[in-house]
Amino acid sequence: MKIGIHKMSFYVPKFYLDINTLAHARGIDPLKYTNGLLTHKMSVAPFNQDIVTLAANATLNYLTKEDIKAIDLILFTTESGIDYSKSAATHLISILGLRNDVRALEMKQACYATTAALYFAKGHILQHPESKVLVIASDIAKYGLNSSGEPTQGAGAVSMIVSREPNIMVLEDQYGIHSEDIYDFWRPDGLDYAQVDGKFSNEMYKKFFLKTFDNYKMQTKHTLDDFAALTFHIPYPKIGLRSLELVADKANNPSLFENFYTSISYNKYIGNIYTGSLFLSIIALLEQGNLKAGERIGMFGYGSGAVAEFFSAKLVEGYKAHLNKELHEKQLSNRTELDMEKYAVYLTRKVTNDTVLEDDLDVKVQLKSITDYKRNYQNN
Ligand code: HMG
């Protein structure tokens, strides 16, 4: 049975900070960010957007009545959780009008969790071929003001439907996995901002990429020629480029480099969206690139702590017709730029209990209030 990604879309909040504004405010050469990290803008979430609303808005970009009838499993991946007990997935049952006999849960292993969710979704569909699985990655990435990770923040969600006979790509069966107990990036209980050992995290990312790619190649006997593109978890685009350079060179594999640059064309204007970053780059590659049906894409999922997986998928005939290119481009070009003062407010201030937020007709789903520590969402 062919199982894979049937629908995919993303949603980012309406605010962004230009990376040049940040560089000037911090007294840093802007080229360090634009050339050194290959990043240009970072999405910033307003108070009325949290991981649930980002996820709901991404899913509403494509959700149909037929999808709702078939979805019997929601896997919500995040590392910006809002409750220790109630999963963010349960909110989507009411917001999206999903079935009540749906399994709804939240999964965590830093940015890797979405790759694992696809694997579990595939296993579920093997047992229940008629079902569709909603896999949603949603995060708000914050390192804090004046931190070393500040230029690598972001916010957004990627929503996907996994099914048999998918319209976009078929997930292949082989994968390479590597896991180790390390502290490269972590956010302990009680801290609002991630802790990070930046240089070590970069070393680990590249080491895990080589290990999982080698493991995958050993099983499949594939070489670079078997891939139309290699895509990466993108905490910031430069690390993907540096990783690609470890296994390929521009002179011999020009198309892998061309496709890599296409794959980062959304990430560099959004920043790190943690669990969704790899899938955001796949959406960009498919929407902005020229890959053909039957071609293979390699994907590297990495989540600090750390677990990584290299896996692959093949594109389905007619996949372009099932993307949301215009909607995504419009969303990116309609955003509002923030100055440093407003950015600092949105980054540092939290929505607390007993707060009521104003109606925001710019968004379909918003956080409306928190009362008795219950979050109330509104479908505008
Ligand atoms: P840093 O110390 O500010 O920067 O940290 P740097 O000194 O390493 O320089 C960065 C690049 O800019 C280098 O390029 C410099 O040469 C260049 P490279 O040599 O690597 O190609 N540069 C310049 N280029 C042009 N003009 C200049 C200039 N100056 C320097 N004037 C770091 C950067 C990314 C470490 C920091 O921002 C950070 O800690 N970020 C957060 C951690 C992170 O993203 N780690 C990535 C791997 S871990 C991961 O992916 C998991 C994660 O997503 C979490 C999860 O799994 O949930 C984070």
UniProtKB/TrEMBL annotation:
Signal peptide: none annotated. (3S)-3-hydroxy-3-methylglutaryl-CoA binds at D29, Y143, N272. The keyword ATP-binding does not apply. The active site is at E79 (proton donor/acceptor), C111 (acyl-thioester intermediate), H233 (proton donor/acceptor). InterPro entries: HMG_CoA_synt_C_dom, HMG_CoA_synth_N, HMG_CoA_synthase_prok, Thiolase-like. Pfam families: HMG_CoA_synt_C, HMG_CoA_synt_N. Keywords: Acyltransferase, Transferase. GO terms for molecular function: hydroxymethylglutaryl-CoA synthase activity. Its EC number is 2.3.3.10. Residues 175-245, 260-349 form the Hydroxymethylglutaryl-coenzyme A synthase C-terminal domain. It is an enzyme of class 2 (transferase). Residues 2-163 form the Hydroxymethylglutaryl-coenzyme A synthase N-terminal domain. SUPFAM superfamilies: Thiolase-like. One of its GO terms (biological process) is acetyl-CoA metabolic process. PANTHER family: 3-HYDROXY-3-METHYLGLUTARYL COENZYME A SYNTHASE, HYDROXYMETHYLGLUTARYL-COA SYNTHASE. Belongs to the thiolase-like superfamily. HMG-CoA synthase family. This is Hydroxymethylglutaryl-CoA synthase. The lineage of its organism: Bacteria, Bacillati, Mycoplasmatota, Mollicutes, Acholeplasmatales.
